[in-house]
Amino acid sequence: MRVQLIIGFLILFISEILKVYFIMPFPGSQQSDTIELAYFLHQYIWYLRILGIVLLAYPLWKNFKIGSKLTKIILGGLTLLWLGVVYLFNFQLTADHMFYQPKNKTMASGSDNKIAKDKLILGVVHNGQAKAYPIQLIGYHHQVIDTVGGTPMMITYCTVCRTGRVYLPFVNGKYEQFRLVGMDHFNAMFEDQTTGSWWQQATGESITGKLKGKTLRSFPSEQVSLASWLRQYPNSLIMQADSLFKEEYSGLKNYDSGKGKSELTTRDSLSWKLKSWVVGITLGKTAKAYDWNTLLQKRIIYDTVEKHHIIIVLEKDGKSFHAFKSESPFGMLDLVLKDNQLIDSQSDAVWDMDGKCISGKYQGSSLPKIQAYQEFWHSWKTFQPNTLVMK
After folding, report:
1. Quick one: pLDDT at residue 299?
2. Where does the chain cross the membrane (predicted)?
3. What whole-number distance in Å separates Cα of residue 200 and Cα of residue 24?
C-alpha cells in the first residue's frame, strides 16, 4: 500500500504542476521542446487525476480506518496540499486567470483621446479605416478582438518577446475565438475554441493539436508613436484604457522604453544579446535582422534583400521606424536622410517619413512599404531560425 500511495500522490502532484510549468515562464520551463508533453497533460489531465485518485482510494481509506494518528495527519496533509496545488495551478497561475480581455473596449477619436501622444502603438489600416492600439494596453491583454474596416481582426502583443502581430481570426474560412493559454519559448500561445489547438503568437502557426501546421493569415501593422500615427492618419480611432485594469496597465508604463518590472521584459542596451532590440523584416523567402542601436545611431540603414534596395529609417522621436523599398515607379533611388526627410540625391525629390513624395520629380508617388517588427533578438532568431543578420 505504501508504494501505491507514493505512486498515486506522485501522479497527482507531478501532472498538476507540469501541466502549468511547461507553458508558463518558470525557471527552465521555456528552453526545451516540451510542447507536445504539455499539450498531452492539458488534454488528459482528468484521466491522470482519476488514475491517481483510484490508486489512493483504498490505501487512504485503510490508513484512515486503522492507521496511526501520525499517519492520518501526514496523509491528510498531503491530500490538502494536493487540493491547494490544484487551486493554485488552475485558478491562480494560468495565463487566462492572470491576463484578461478588456471589459469596456472604447475607441476614441483624436479629439477625445486620453492616451499620451508619445506612447507606442500598433496601428492598422483597412478599407479606409485606421485604428491604433497602445502597446501599454494590449501588452497586458495580449490580444484584443476588434473590427477594422468591416473585417474582424485579432490584435496581439507578447511583452516577453516584444512581438506585435495582427491576424485575421478565421480558420478554414470560419470565424474562430481564441483564449490565452500560456507560452512556448517565451512566446504567447492561444487556444482556439473549436478544436483546442494551440497557436503561436509570433508566427500565427498552430504548433500542436488537431490543426497543427495551419497558419492564421497575418495583416500589416506598424509600430510607431501615437503622434507619428496621427500624422499619417489624423482620423484614426485610438483604443482607450479600461478603468478596470488601471493597476495592470501601470505595471507597463515604462515598457515602451525597455524598462519593465520583470527581467523578462527589460531591454539589454548592448547589441545582439538575448534581450537586445532588433528590427526584423521578411522579404520573399529571406528574413533579416538589424541592430536597433545601429538604427539609433545612424537613423537610416541601407541594405539589399532579395535584389531589392531597402532602407530602414528612424524618426526624430527615436521610437517610430519605417522600412521601405528604395525605389520609385521609374527605378531605384539613392535616398539620403536629412532632418526628417528623405532626399533622392539623383533628382532632389523629397519624401516624408511616411514614404510619400512631397516634391520633385516623383511627387504624388509613395515608397513601397515593407512589414517590419521591433522585437527582442531571442524572439526573432527563435521564430526565424534561418534569419540573416546585418552587423
Report:
1. 97
2. 5-24, 44-61, 73-93
3. 14
